[in-house]
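Q: Can I see a sequence and its folded structure?
A: Here is a first one.
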Amino acid sequence: MYNTIVVGTDGSETAGAALAHAVALAASFGSDLHIVHAYRTISASDVVSSAAAGTAMPDFASVNEGIKATSEHVLAHSLATAESAGVKAHGHAFPGDAADALVSTAEQVSADVIVVGNRGMSGLRRFVLGSVPNKVAHHCPCSVLIVNTTGDASS
């Protein structure tokens, strides 16, 4: 049913709950799992804006290297989690928007389902188009499974 599964992670506890669900699903179906981590680097314009506000100018190349290294660490940890459960997993790191990265990966790998957490989907926030789960649900090329990652079944 699900040959190819895509899941996103930012390394947080709630993303870990969605990852665990995706890993269990992949293990159940013998699926390939594609783990996506999106990160945001800083640009020269960010540095100029910071300087204009009177903030010290960071070395944005070094900061971006640190951001990319953190992304690689998050992916490595997530891949190890999947592989320890016997799941064949692939890591994808993208600069930019998380929802765009998930949808793009799903398109590239012909995913059957994208697994996302519901963090940020409670109350009025569930109606905000900018949330990752909502944006993915509206733009993805496949099914979406939204996992309750808040620990509160009433959300």
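Q: Show me another, different protein.
A: A second, unrelated one:
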Amino acid sequence: MRRTSKIAAVGLVVALALTGCGRSDTGTSKPGSGTSAAADNTICKDAKGDTKVGLAFDVGGVGDQSFNDSAYAGLKKAVSELGVACTTGEATDGEAESAREDRLRTMADAGMNPIVAVGFAYSEAVDKVSGDYPDVNFAVIDGFDPTGDAANDNVAYLGFAENEGSFLVGAAAGLKTKTNKVGFVGGVHMDLIKKFEAGFTQGVKAVNPKAKVLVGYIQESDLKGFGDPDGGKQVANGQLDRGADVIYHAAGGSGAGVFAAVTEAGKGQWAIGVDSDQYLTAPDDQKAHILTSMLKRVDVATFDMIKSVVDGAPLKSYSTFDLKADGVGYSTSGGFVDDIKAQLDQWAEKIKAGTIKVKTKP
């Protein structure tokens, strides 16, 4: 089983802890969805099957409009198509590490296999618990090995090729810009977010070599860069003032400020969302300005992990869900990229075929 070194793992802990991209810690739910897994967990109540899946949610549970909802969609597909039974558990904001461990142990003791934990915050708990249950298969969405020295062959770390998805929305920006100036707003200036920047810039340049990409980061190293809508708005306004008419954010909660700035700038200005289809959850006045979103398909990773166990060949070690695996992509809600969809799909096919190698660094 491939393991990162301890130094590399520590670096990854810091990187993932700072991103804030793709998960919500607010506990906010969309109308009618319920505020927790328990409130909307009818699928597990009625599901029956020989394979019993445990899904450990991050903070927010079902209704978070992000990673938890996407993972739950993957579970629902597994119940429907694979005939599995299931149970879920939800994290609470600020809970102790021991609470995550207890949640996983309770599922393992109840016979759940596999157990899928949503979010990197479960990495430490999974590393500790999985050693005590060698016959149970565990997976961590965006997870990592925190020690680098324990070969737990029953753990899968499920990551994503964010650079490839970012290439496609970069191509959309390059095709849609009228000013030949587009913007990228990152939450924190760090390697993981620069991966988004690299793919986006490459996509812009691939379709529009004349276009200039204006790059701005809210913070150099402070975690607050992913929870600062005012900071996101300030950076976006600076790019709008310099002529950008399409801005892509990889800034977590700070992206709300980017959307606000673009909406206030008026007709002809576009924003691009990240991780989930942000058009679907944006206020009505912002929808007309959200060109597309870079999708991170947590539902695909969750379903594939469950299917691998059902098929008797459980995923292990590190897996990257890229374009070829339908792990990343772009949204079409609103119909704003319908006229260029064929071109974007052609670029996607080139990436899948390996004709185009998408950079991970600017």
